[in-house]
Design a protein that fits this description.
2 copies of one chain form a homodimer. The first copy, chain A, is α+β, with helices and mostly antiparallel strands. The first copy, chain A, contains 4 helices and 4 strands; from the N terminus they run βαββααβα. In chain A, a hairpin with a 3-residue loop joins β2 and β3. In chain A, α1 runs antiparallel to α3. β4 of chain A pairs antiparallel with β4 of chain B, so a sheet runs across the interface.
Chain lengths: ~110, ~110
């Protein structure tokens, strides 16, 4: 259920958001954008959850892949709708993942050795 | 509702997880750990949501602050409970945030200029 990513380094886009009131068009566009993102060169995976706020973290091979996705024509249209109608607030953070571990990795042992 | 962070660079710990079956002790410990994290030197903020999976992103001044929090005695005990009882799976990614913008920043214009 969690996305698998290759060994670091790679990049993460951390998108946190607060939605406006429900708009049925939002879910349709969100699903379309998720599918389109997955088809982009350099896309590595995505995790998403929404409760009081939404958090979507997408993983990318490098910054060029992130920039290309940001400038994709269909995505630009979705971004504009997001700013005008769907989101009350959002934050986007672009980060370089340098270290990653999982339940299987016994992180206490690994952390100190890296 | 979204956490505010200072200008980059800073660090993010992206914690994604799938829980085991409900354990009432989990929520108590999760709240305790969130409060304790906020009291640590170098803590900058935290965003959290759980739907099918849980995503918690905490923000930190530098890697030393992350390492100190990881090794905090009470947190080590919680980590052990997490591995043994609470989580079916988790991933932890430590990342350096190099760029951040929000709804107010008109991201299209900023992105190209950076």
């Amino acid at each position: 259920m969690l996305t698998s990513t290759p060994s670091p380094p790679y990049y993460a886009v951390i998108f946190t958001s607060v939605r406006q009131d429900d708009d049925p068009a939002y879910e349709t566009m969100a699903e379309k954008m998720a599918l389109l993102a997955k088809a982009q060169p350099g896309f590595l995976g995505m995790d998403s959850a929404r409760q009081d706020i939404g958090i979507t973290v997408s993983y990318w091979r490098n910054e060029a892949a992130i920039k290309a996705w940001k400038q994709h024509t269909d995505h630009l249209a979705a971004q504009q709708m997001g700013r005008k109608r769907w989101y009350r607030d959002y934050q986007i953070r672009v980060a370089r993942v340098g270290r990653a571990y999982s339940l299987q990795d016994r992180p206490d042992m690994l952390f100190d050795g890296r």
